[in-house]
């Protein structure tokens, strides 16, 4: 107690000049004021020492009144207010003061109440004269966990919640990990991980684990499994480990085919990753400069059950080492790490990135998309594919700066994330070829027709002529906007997706299989009726990056290239000769059948409409971006013509579907959907959906209102 009082007097001498006569008077009354002085001056002590709680933190209102009862006078002062603010009074008035001014505005935490304090514990700003003693004492709260003083009640509640989320629950200002009893074990794909109860709140916990991203993790695992089948062993990096769930799944299922490195810049995350490795009976090889190497696997030897754990910035670890497979999954955008990822990635390696900043990518915050991706986008019916192409464009530019090109293997945009998987092609020629595929998009705001701008740097006198629609001629003013730059090439590689599907079947990844089937059909622009997982004959050898790679059903020799330019040139020449035999790449973008439905008409069922489009000679398929979307090479006018031909008037709904003659008053250009047709179509879609995407995306398809 003597130490506390001396610290208080010392601190007061620094801030305020107190006369010696007053100091003597305070020393005489030290016996009476000692509990109040000692508790209010705790903040001046070093935070390394354990401390008692402040007097403003009590369990019951009666405990505050007991502090005032220590004085034997009839008039008792408030223990939380200075004399100049609240003078000593009788007990009944003091009780009303404590209850209304201090207790009712308190913050509760684990049975304690942090009452508002008016003592001179918190330094306040001086007045205009510069005399701090004449300043008004500021009201504040004392944190029960640390030595902070907070002014506002809402800020105090948020401050306490941050302590809880970080596991700081002891009443002293040190960071402590949560006790073992507060952890819970989550199991996914035969892998166990320990997480905190608040594991689903990003940026507020070191053990961030999102169960909704299970499909994302399965897709990435399938991509890595395909790469592991091409060359062994491969070095793979999970740059943002968090709990380490993804890297543990890689090492547990692929075993000796991969050398897994899990990185995180947080010390608590690294500790949790090591515990999760031991939980799954994996050995840990540490590569942390700040710690000793006692936990390193004996004498530097590695085996299939060894995972390397690093604690450094993701940009640093990718600059220092080369990898065959890199996955980036930061909180938000991943553009800050693309330059480092493409700097040392090996030739024909794979870079996958998950972007969760969907508010900017889905055109809800267009200025953020322009700042992060250098891309101008608006909200359209095909906004999810627009987001995927914007991310790929940023990836292409980052790879080109490192003299590398890319081939897009997979692009998925769902409700919570955008996943892009690309293969890296080293050399200036692939880099130039990839950079040429980044173009601007001309988008009509009236009918939502769209077309990529033609190649070349020459200005056109009338760029509206590139659009298939005639809205510019029939509507006043400017009718189109320029979006981009965007990736104009293919979003999928059929051969790679087929092998991913085989890996998903082999490892029993049930959630990824329906989506992969849809992606294979979408990449080939065909329907599920014509799809088969068994590929006969020469189609087993799929072309990727100009290289033929054997699939599981092929008995011929597997052509794998390990950076040898001569072999690659030979295979590229063979690829050019075979390209004419394979179908062309899928058409860009899609149309929503509900958005372009006709007023007063019942649309045909989606599966029947796909067959009608196919009979008309158009390539057509469904898309994972939109459950009611139709990917086709037909223009919007041709799409509406087929839709109008096989639509029936609503007043003859029982009539069989077929071509009808529309009255003159029904215009083709009207885009207001029929409400009854929407309900019937959704029910039919849920019953006949073979790809399993209805349940995942039914809630997120675009609204059915016409474009302004």
From TrEMBL:
A GO BP annotation: tRNA N2-guanine methylation
Region annotation (Disordered) ranges: 17-47
Signal peptide range in chain numbering: none
Catalysed reactions listed for this entry: guanosine(27) in tRNA(Tyr) + 2 S-adenosyl-L-methionine = N(2)-dimethylguanosine(27) in tRNA(Tyr) + 2 S-adenosyl-L-homocysteine + 2 H(+)
Coiled coil: none
SUPFAM superfamilies listed in its UniProt record: S-adenosyl-L-methionine-dependent methyltransferases
GO MF terms, alphabetically ordered: tRNA (guanine) methyltransferase activity; tRNA binding; zinc ion binding
Subcellular location: Nucleus, Nucleolus
PROSITE patterns attached to this UniProt entry: SAM_MT_TRM1 (PS51626), ZINC_FINGER_C2H2_1 (PS00028)
Annotated InterPro entries: SAM-dependent_MTases_sf (IPR029063), Trm1 (IPR002905), tRNA_met_Trm1_C (IPR042296), Znf_C2H2_type (IPR013087)
Annotated ranges, domain C2H2-type: 143-163
GO cellular component terms attached to this protein's record: nucleolus
Keywords in alphabetical order: Isopeptide bond, Metal-binding, Methyltransferase, Nucleus, Phosphoprotein, RNA-binding, S-adenosyl-L-methionine, Transferase, tRNA processing, tRNA-binding, Ubl conjugation, Zinc, Zinc-finger
Superkingdom of the source species: Eukaryota
Bias type Basic and acidic residues, positions: 26-39
Gene3D superfamilies (UniProt xref): N2,N2-dimethylguanosine tRNA methyltransferase, C-terminal domain, Vaccinia Virus protein VP39
Family to which this protein belongs: Belongs to the class I-like SAM-binding methyltransferase superfamily. Trm1 family.
The protein's name in its UniProt record: tRNA (guanine(27)-N(2))-dimethyltransferase
The encoding gene: Trmt1l
């Amino acid at each position: 107690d003597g130490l506390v009082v001396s610290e208080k007097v010392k601190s007061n001498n620094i801030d305020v000049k107190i006369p010696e006569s007053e100091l003597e008077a305070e020393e005489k009354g030290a016996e009476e004021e000692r509990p109040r002085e000692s508790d209010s001056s705790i903040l001046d002590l070093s935070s390394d020492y354990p401390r008692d709680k402040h007097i403003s933190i009590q369990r019951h209102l009666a405990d505050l009144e007991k502090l005032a009862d220590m004085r034997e006078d009839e008039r008792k002062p408030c223990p939380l207010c200075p004399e100049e603010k609240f003078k000593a009074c009788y007990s009944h008035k003091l009780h009303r003061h404590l209850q209304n001014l201090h207790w009712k505005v308190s913050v509760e935490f684990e049975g304690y109440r942090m009452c508002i304090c008016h003592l001179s514990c918190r330094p306040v700003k001086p007045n205009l004269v510069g005399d701090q003693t004449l300043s008004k004492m500021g009201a504040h709260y004392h944190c029960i966990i640390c030595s902070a003083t907070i002014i506002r009640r809402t800020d105090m509640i948020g401050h306490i919640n941050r302590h809880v989320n970080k596991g700081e629950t002891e009443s002293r200002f040190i960071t402590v990990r949560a006790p073992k009893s507060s952890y819970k074990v989550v199991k996914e794909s035969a892998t166990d991980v320990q997480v905190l109860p608040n594991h689903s709140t990003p940026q507020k916990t070191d053990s961030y684990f999102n169960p909704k991203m299970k499909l994302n993790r399965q897709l990435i695992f399938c991509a890595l499994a395909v790469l592991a089948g091409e060359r062994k062993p491969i070095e793979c990096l999970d740059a943002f480990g968090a709990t380490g769930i993804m890297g543990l799944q890689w090492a547990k299922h692929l075993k000796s085919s991969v050398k897994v490195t899990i990185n995180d810049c947080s010390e608590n995350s690294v500790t949790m990753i090591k515990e999760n490795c031991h939980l799954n009976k994996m050995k840990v090889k540490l590569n942390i400069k700040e710690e000793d190497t006692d936990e390193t696997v004996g004498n530097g030897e590695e085996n299939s059950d060894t995972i390397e754990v690093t604690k450094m910035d993701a940009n640093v670890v990718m600059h220092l080492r080369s990898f065959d497979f890199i996955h980036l999954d930061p909180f938000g955008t991943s553009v800050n790490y693309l330059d480092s990822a493409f700097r040392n990635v090996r030739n024909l390696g794979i870079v996958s990135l998950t972007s969760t900043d969907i508010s900017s990518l889905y055109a809800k915050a267009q200025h953020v998309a322009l700042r992060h991706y250098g891309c101008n986008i608006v909200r359209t019916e095909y906004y999810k594919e627009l987001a995927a192409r914007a991310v790929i464009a940023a990836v292409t530019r980052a790879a080109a700066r490192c003299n590398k090109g890319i081939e897009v293997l997979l692009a998925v945009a769902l409700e919570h994330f955008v996943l892009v998987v690309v293969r890296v092609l080293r050399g200036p020629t692939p880099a130039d070829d990839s950079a040429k595929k980044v173009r601007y998009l001309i988008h009509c705001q009236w009918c939502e027709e769209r077309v990529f701008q033609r190649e070349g740097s020459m200005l056109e006198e009338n760029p509206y002529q590139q659009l298939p629609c005639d809205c510019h001629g029939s509507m006043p003013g400017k009718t189109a906007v320029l979006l981009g730059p965007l990736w104009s090439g293919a979003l999928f590689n059929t051969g790679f997706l087929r092998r991913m599907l085989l890996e998903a079947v082999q490892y029993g990844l049930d959630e990824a299989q329906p989506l992969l089937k849809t992606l294979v059909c979408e990449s080939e622009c065909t329907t599920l009726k014509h799809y088969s997982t068994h590929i006969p004959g020469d189609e087993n050898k799929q072309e990727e990056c100009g290289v033929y790679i054997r699939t599981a059903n092929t008995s011929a020799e597997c052509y794998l290239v390990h950076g040898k330019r001569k072999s690659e040139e030979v295979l590229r020449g063979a690829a050019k000769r075979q390209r004419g035999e394979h179908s062309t790449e899928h058409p860009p973008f899609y149309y929503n059948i509900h958005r372009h439905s006709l007023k007063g008409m019942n649309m045909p069922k989606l599966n029947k409409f796909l067959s009608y489009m196919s009979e008309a000679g158009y390539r057509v398929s469904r898309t994972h971006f939109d459950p009611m979307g139709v990917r086709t090479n037909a223009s919007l006018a041709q799409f509406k013509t087929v839709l109008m031909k096989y639509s029936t008037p609503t007043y003859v709904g029982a009539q069989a579907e077929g071509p009808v003659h529309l009255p003159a008053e029904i215009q083709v250009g009207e885009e207001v959907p029929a409400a009854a047709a929407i309900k019937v179509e959704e029910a039919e879609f849920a019953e006949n959906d073979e790809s399993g995407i209805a349940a995942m995306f039914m809630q997120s398809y675009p609204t059915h209102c016409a474009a302004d």
